[in-house]
Amino acid sequence: MAAKPLLELRGIDKSFGPVRVLHDVSLSVYPGEVTALVGDNGAGKSTLVKCISGIYPIDAGTVTFEGREVAVHSPRDAAELGIEVVYQDLALCDNLDIVQNMFLGREIRRGIALDEPAMERLAGETLASLSVRSVNSLRQLVSSLSGGERQTVAIAKAVLWNSRIVILDEPTAALGVAQTTHVLELVRRLADNGLSVVLISHNMNDVFAVADRIAALYLGRTAAQVRASDVTHAQVVELITIGRSGNLGLPPEAPNDFADLLPGAPR
């Protein structure tokens, strides 16, 4: 397990007018690990991700990247840090092929012309580095791909740009069993390749299949962040539904897991 987080958020607040959506939220994301971000609808997961990715400005709190405090004012700022987000809608164009989608808005040019061979080579290398073998041709239209293959292309698109952190928003929500297994294997492979992965999911089976750590939000607050091996499904469900778990504890030698945020701890 990594000793220091790559990305750390402390005391994050976010309001929209009189509605306070995030209250003193903390989150740590470690290199080479999958951190599952869980919580019920309205818990603040999407808002937190949009704060991380620069879509929403934070009202209070600090964001540190590699130990230094940073300001993320826009998606461009997040991308320069190496933070990429794959949203549920995937942001893919059905009428374009795989290569065109992966380089959309970031095309490589040679003079005034697109450098198609370079883009095709880099797209192929990225998919190969993720051990993706289910795609028949890089020139397939995205409209011809299965749900799992589309998710794979969206993830590969995020990885292509030297990303350090990949945030995945419910990547298996609309997939069948076989495709879910494929995507989860890909998620695990990203972390094993050294990337930090934040997995947003309502599916506890998916979470426990790939996550190293679990961060639970409850009504806009951090209920706990714990190692997945230290908790059960039932304990995580309690954190999601009531914001605490009566029998949840952490070993005292694990200060990075927010033991101070556990129920019953002094605040």
From TrEMBL:
Residue stretches spanning the membrane: none
Pfam families: ABC_tran
Superkingdom, natural source: Bacteria
Segments forming domain ABC transporter: 7-244
GO MF annotation: an example: ATP hydrolysis activity
Gene3D superfamilies per UniProt: P-loop containing nucleotide triphosphate hydrolases (3.40.50.300)
Xref: InterPro entries: AAA+_ATPase, ABC_carbohydrate_import_ATPase, ABC_transporter-like_ATP-bd, P-loop_NTPase
Matching SUPFAM superfamilies: P-loop containing nucleoside triphosphate hydrolases
Keywords: ATP-binding, Nucleotide-binding
Protein name: Sugar ABC transporter ATP-binding protein
Organism: Actinoplanes utahensis
Lineage: Bacteria, Bacillati, Actinomycetota, Actinomycetes, Micromonosporales
